[in-house]
Amino acid sequence: MARLDSAEQFSKSIIPILDRTRTVAKLGYNRWLVPPAALCVHLCIGQAYAFSVFNLPMTKLQGITESAPGDWKLTELGWIFSIAMVFLGLSAAIFGRWVEEGGPRKAMFTAGVLWASGFFVSALGVKFHNIWLIYFGYGFLGGCALGIGYISPVSTLIKWFPDRPGMATGMAIMGFGGGAMIASPLSVWLMARFASDTDVGVLNTFITLGCVYFLFMMVGATLVRVPAKDWKPDGYVAPAQPKKLITTNSVHVYDAIKTPQFWLVWVVLCANTTAGIGVLGQASAMSQEMFPGVITPVAAAGLVGLMSIFNMGGRFCWATVSDFIGRKNTYFTFFILGICLYITVPFAAGVGNVPLFVFCFLIIVSMYGGGFSTVPAYLKDLFGVRYVGAIHGFVLTAWSAAGIFGPVLINYIREYNINHGIAQAQAYNVTMYIMAGLLALGFVCNLLIKAVDKRYHLKAEASGGAELAAAAE
Amino acid sequence: MSDTIVRTPAWKVAAAWVFVGIPLLMGIFQTLLNAMKLFQ
Q1: Cβ neighbours of residue A246 under 8 Å, at least 6 residues apart?
Q2: What is the rounded distance in angstroms from the CA atom of residue A332 to the CA atom of residue A149?
Q3: Which residues contact A412 (CB under 8 A, 6 or more apart)?
Q4: Which tens digits make up the pLDDT trace of A48-69?
Q5: Other Cβ atoms within 10 Å of A24 Cβ, number
Q6: What is the mean pLDDT of chain A?
Q7: Pairwise CB contact (< 8 Å): A228 & B1
Q8: Could you tell me the pLDDT band of residue B1, with boundaries at 50, 70 and 90?
Q9: Nearest neighbour of B37 by CB, restricted to A36, A185, A301
Q10: Distance, C-alpha A195 to centroid of its chain
């Protein structure tokens, strides 16, 4: 009952309109309004992937045309993104339960305020040329907005689309991949508009982006609704005999992290993400070095662009496929196909087959995106709907870990190989085989995932009560 | 909770999708333009 009391406390907020009770949908509400609401948030926070467009201009804040002695170095600026990614994982884990019990509107509003504040504080950092203000603004505040915003619509979408949970979360998480595609040209355009002989335009761009993103995210917070208790889509009948991996019960977030299934899913996501992130982050340099003189820097930039489209498309397509073939089979596909593709990459480079190389990279990156969008539905299958957002928050720490492992594996092994006399074109071959090995580990962990033991399920009364407190209708 | 059924107007759903769809499609278009460099 203690959990129920805290859930009731969570459902009350300082601003009543943000309360979960105020977001329960009335009869006749169209559930297709919820995916755009989720996209309003994910398209904004997806800007994080495009933050690198500010790196070069921020090395010339004082020198304007070229870096002055007092200007920041790229190495100092690289920390901004890293700090934001660390706080993404931490805040998703720490605030996951608060997001779940406070409701999506409160979470989206909080994410919007933090995201905009992050830009405004960073603008102050640019004005006073204080890097610590940017670390605090974009890194800490922005990172917390990323974590809270990322998980905010997940369980709501799953509740609205019990017939297609993968597709529903895929739509939202696709937005995170698409956000960079909007932010990158928009930021470049804004900086060009605001640039002058005495200003590179970063300060005003930060302020403008902060305002635009805040308004956009508030539209999402206004649109979002949670379904009434026992609501079902017209004509939907829950399967009488659920598949053996899928539970109709719920597991409390703090019990979920005690189960082997949670950690197996964690490793599955970490392996899939590490393999993908290493390739995604280094694609430009890797393609040019594996095909010297064939793939030019301009063509490599084109490849990176194409990869970002496949990253986004994979998020929607693979998650939708998972509704038909099941989550476990979807991850089996990622791992088996991924192993084949990673082994094919050195072969393609060896025979100089650029189309085969590009094909491998595009499918790999689509599965990287698919891994993110399929995991919420996988968690819902294993642990039930009630705390899926909070459990998802904890699992996202695998992303933070992969953000360190992936690039480190690629860069250090390449450097080691080159230092030991291996030609630049073959320097990535060992890394590709290591990535394939990592996917084999993911395959084994996925194989070991079984249904969660019944002793972890919430008791019927507590579960029902918690649902009642959460839905509060 | 009221039992009155107030159906969400179709234009509202369409407007919400247009609101998020336009920037997303513009972003995809820009990215595709850049990606074309791979085939030049």
Answers
A1: A381, A382, A451
A2: 29
A3: none
A4: 988 989 988 999 999 999 899 9
A5: 19
A6: 89
A7: yes
A8: very low
A9: A301
A10: 32
Q: The tokens of A437 are what? A: 């090995």
Report phi then psi at A226, rounded to 5. Answer: -105, 145
Q: Which residues pair with A196 in a beta bridge?
A: A199
Question: Beta-carbon neighbour count of residue A258 at 10 Å?
Answer: 11
- In angstroms, the CA A18 to CA A12 distance is 9
Distance of CA A85 to the CA centre of its chain: 10
Q: Do A178 and B12 touch (CB under 8 A)?
A: no
Q: Residue A111's CB: how many other CB atoms inside 10 A?
A: 29
Angle between helix A260-290 and helix A354-383 axes, rounded to 10 deg = 170
The CA distances from residue A111 to A129, A373, A403, in Å, are: 26, 20, 22
Mean pLDDT of A327-346: 96
H helices of A61-103, where?
74-102
Structure tokens given for A424: 């630049």
Contacts of B36 in chain A (CB under 8 A): 302
ipTM entry: 0.92
- The conformational region for residue A451 under phi > 0 = left, psi -120 to 50 = alpha, else beta, is beta
Instruction: Report how far residue A373's alpha carbon sits from residue A277's, in angstroms, rounded to the nearest whole number.
Output: 15
**Best of A33, A182, A298 to disrupt the B interface by mutation (most B CBs within 10 Å)?**
A182
Q: How many helices (H) and strands (E) does chain A have?
A: 19, 0
- The predicted model gives A254-260 an average pLDDT of 95
Coil, strand or helix: which one is A196? strand
pTM metric for this prediction: 0.89
Q: Does A221 contact B at CB distance below 8 Å?
A: no
Distance (Å, whole) CA A71 – CA A288: 30
Closest residue in A to B35 (Cα–Cα):
A302
Q: Is B25 on the interface with A (CB under 8 A)?
A: no
For residue A2, what pLDDT band results from cuts at 50, 70 and 90? Answer: very low
Q: Where are the alpha helices (DSSP H) in A291-396?
A: 297-325, 327-351, 354-383, 388-395
CA distance A453 to A405: 32
Q: Cα A65 to the chain's mean position, in Å?
A: 35
Closest to B1 (Cβ–Cβ): which among A180, A358, A473? Answer: A473
* First-to-last C-alpha distance (Å) of chain A: 19
**Other C-beta atoms within 10 Å of A8: how many?**
16
3-class secondary structure, A185: helix
Report the residue from A185, A298, A358 with minimal CB separation from B30.
A185
Calculate the CA A27 to chain-centre distance: 32
